[in-house]
Design the sequence.
């Protein structure tokens, strides 16, 4: 069985950490997490943290260690783990109906694996609609300081220069507009003017 040191060395040698400058690992070890329950997560050294990043921001919104969810996932993995989006599945059709009932005037759902993938699809959808309507419109507007994901197109629509600067050039057709923030108005105005 690998030791704690072995795992940390494997991490340093082989993993590319999301949104991380890896030279930091020359002087310190990366965080390696081993278990979690509810909103708490424990690292390889036994330290416990309240998870305000992965859980709330990305994909563990209902907490870790939910046995009812694990069982439902297991049951579906045994029955039909995946089928490409070119056809439907029973759970997808049923869940899409539930979402459509909650969203007035929206009756179609596109499922994706991440926010980046969802935004990529949204960019394609609006451009396809504009093309089919013959409008000639192609620009995607984004606000300063906005975050939309980490794919190249999502970074093209990101208003956070610190996330963009190392990855260009970007695809054309994305335009920045000021963030709607009256408290620090980019036009030097004050509310309600």
Sequence:
């Amino acid at each position: 069985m690998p030791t704690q040191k072995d795992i940390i060395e494997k991490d340093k040698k082989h993993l590319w950490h999301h949104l991380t400058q890896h030279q930091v690992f020359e002087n310190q070890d990366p965080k390696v997490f081993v278990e979690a329950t509810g909103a708490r997560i424990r690292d390889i050294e036994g330290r416990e943290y309240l998870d305000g990043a992965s859980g709330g921001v990305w994909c563990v919104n209902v907490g870790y260690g939910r046995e009812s969810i694990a069982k439902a996932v297991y049951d579906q993995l045994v029955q039909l783990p995946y089928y490409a989006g070119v056809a439907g599945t029973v759970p997808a059709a049923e869940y899409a109906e539930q979402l459509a009932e909650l969203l007035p005037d929206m009756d179609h759902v596109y499922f994706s694996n991440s926010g980046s993938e969802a935004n990529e699809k949204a960019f394609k959808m609006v451009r396809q609609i504009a093309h089919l309507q013959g409008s000639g419109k192609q620009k995607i507007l984004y606000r300063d300081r906005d975050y939309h994901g980490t794919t190249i197109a999502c970074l093209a629509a990101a208003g956070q220069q610190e996330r963009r600067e190392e990855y260009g050039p970007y695809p054309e057709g994305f335009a920045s507009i000021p963030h709607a923030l009256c408290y620090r108005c980019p036009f030097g105005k004050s509310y309600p003017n």
